[in-house]
Structures are given as C-alpha cells and as structure tokens.
Amino acid sequence: MVSPLVALGVDTPVLAAPMAGGPTTPALVTAAARAGGLGFVPGGYRTTAALAEQIAAVRSAGVPFGVNLFAPNPVPVDPDAFRRYAHAIAPDAGIHGVDTPAAELVEDDDHWADKVALLLSDPVPVVSFTFGIPQASVVSGLRAAGSLVVQTVTSAAEARAAAEAGADVLAVQASAAGGHSGTLTPQHTPAAVPLEDLLGEVRAAVPLPLVAAGGLATPAAVAGALRAGADAVMVGTVLTRAEEAGTSAPHRAALADPARTGTVVTRAFTGRPARALRNEFTDRHTDAAPAGYPALHHLTGPMRRAAAAAGDQERIHLWAGTGHRHATEEPAERILRRLASGI
C-alpha cells in the first residue's frame, strides 16, 4: 500500500477515481472511505463555490478524502476548424433545439487560480491533478499546507516531469480508462499500452509510489495491477452505476445495455481524447473532430445537457472504460470491497 496514504488512515488499496460532471458525488467519496479506501471530490467543471460546498459535505462525514483539479494544459482550437465542426454537428444539436453554428468560441482555465487558492487556504488531505502538471510552486505550496500531491501520468516521460515538479504519488493511467485521458499531449491519441506494461515503464523511470488506473473492474484485474508494481489502484467506470453515483439515467441505461459492447477513444465531445461507449455521435464525428480543449467541451455542452434531460443516449458522452460490463447497480462500498477481495 502507498505509505503516505496509510498515514491518512487508508487501509485498502482500492481508491475511487474522481469522475467530473456528475458521477462522483459526496456520498460516493464517503462510501470509498467507508470501504477502507479513498475517494476524490472532482473539481473539474465546477465553480469554486460549488467545489467548496462539495468539500464541506465530505469533510462533515469525518473521513479521509482527496480533491482533483484539471491543471491548465489548453489545446487552442483553430477558429476555422471550430466553425466547420460547429456546422457539422448542427443536425445533432438541432434535434434538441441547440444552435451550434451560433456558439461562441470559449477558452478558459476552469477557475484554476481560485481553486488552487481555495485548497491552499482550506487544505484537504490529498490533492490530485490531471490534464497538466502544475507549477512547482503550486505543488510545494500544497505540500507545505499539509496536502499529499498526486499527479496523473500516462507515460514514463510524464512520470519524470511529475517527479521533477515535486509530486508525492503518481496515478498511472492506461488508455483502457474511461473518460478523459490525462495525457499531457492531448493533440495526440495515447498509445494503447497495457496497464501492467505501463506500470513497469514508470516504475523503472521514477521511485515514487504508483496508483494504477485504467480498465480495472474485477478482483483479478486489481490483484494483477498490484502484482505488476502498483501500490494501489483507482477505479472509476465500475462505480458509475453504484447507488451513490450521480450518473445520468441515460448513461446508466447505456452501461447496462448488452447491445453496447464497444468503446472508442474520441475527441468528438470535448476536443480531448476520452474513452466512451460508441453511439451515433461518436460514429459520425470522431474522425472529423478537431483537437481543441476546452473549446469543444463548451461547444457541445448545451447539446449534451439537453440530450441527457431528454433521455437521448446518442448525443451524450457515455464515458466508459474497457471494463464497463462489470459496472453494477449496488452500494459503492460493496463494489469496492469486492474488488479488494482478491488481494
């Protein structure tokens, strides 16, 4: 087990990944701790005030927890490519009354400075980062405030950069993971390196504790990752149907649909590579979608929200890892304890 986490009261090496946009709730974070592990409040796509409320809700339960932030690593979109894509997806968006050709091109940093200031002024046990590596001053500031710093990496080169920035622990994410890849070069689709091989490459590159992530949805897979050199594992997709998860109804239904067997890595929804269940939108637009985050995220956001409200599975991001068939509708604590049963 990762010794820094043991000091925080974590005694089971199965952690719950931060799933931004709804799936991870304070109840899910708390359930992860009740199972002996750790959960993360996702800061992505939230205002600073909303993040503070979520932190307060988990803190009131008196359990160890972490907070995850999207570190700035923007991929500016070409304005002409943005407009072409806005017109290309207009028929899909128009089904729900959304006018994408009229959309404004929005680039932002997800309230980065304010969220970092919040975590420095009101420290939490663990802070993790994905999408980018923060400046060393941010990392050192959080460590000085008493937070353990975890950095998501997808290669040995990224692991070395994270170690140089001062990270305490690395979350090693393989391409099998559902949702966004944490790659530092999102203009490229990450290589499909098996998790156990990736762990070996990172372990050879840096001496830091490693948390394995990506496609882990069974006790055997969890045990295999630990044997391959991980000190702990982090699971996400397998929790998306948990009772405590805030996953939307159409997303839950799609995960349970035996006809949806395939996943695809696509930038069609956000301009950043992410693994999802295939649907009509990914089939039509994956090849044409330009790299451009967060511009494409903001472009497709109104369509996705309207589609989710209408129960339309074909125009929402059905984030899912390769182990999605193992997601079950039951209490999260039971799922997490089962995953740890083979250790």
UniProtKB/TrEMBL annotation:
Necessary cofactors: FMN
InterPro entries assigned: Aldolase_TIM, NMO
Entry-linked CDD domains: NPD_like
Catalysis: reaction(s): 3 propionate 3-nitronate + 3 O2 + H2O = 3 3-oxopropanoate + 2 nitrate + nitrite + H2O2 + 3 H(+)
Keyword Oxidoreductase: yes
Domain of life: Bacteria
Gene Ontology molecular functions: dioxygenase activity; nitronate monooxygenase activity
Entry keyword set: Detoxification, Dioxygenase, Flavoprotein, FMN, Monooxygenase, Oxidoreductase
One Gene Ontology biological process: response to toxic substance
Any one Pfam family match given in the protein's UniProt record, by short name: NMO
Family: Belongs to the nitronate monooxygenase family. NMO class I subfamily.
Protein name: Propionate 3-nitronate monooxygenase
